[in-house]
Amino acid sequence: MKLVGRVAKSALERADFVRILYPPWHVLVALVDGVPYALEDACNHAGASLAEGPRDGDRVVCPMHGYVFSLRTGDLIAPRGLCDRQRTFVTTIEGEDVLVWDAFSLDIVG
Length: 110
What we know:
By secondary structure, this protein is mostly beta strands. The chain is 5% helix and 42% strand.
């Protein structure tokens, strides 16, 4: 896994979201019931930054068209079936920091 970045837990406790720059995607990080979650910041419907949208409990609302995604799973909650789920990232806690990891790997055969 590749390290995307680290965020102080205290920063996540003070804000709805923290955005980590990870070109070309960028990553939205949030605490939900004290557990860190991370997902791709750009809405996969139209590319708007989800970090600029409102938070509703364990959900984030896209500021462009109002699509609602689960912060826990990246699943599209509403409207159903109009786009795919958001890409998620692995999070771990190390001391007072949350580390965000990209688990994607590409195996080239041949």
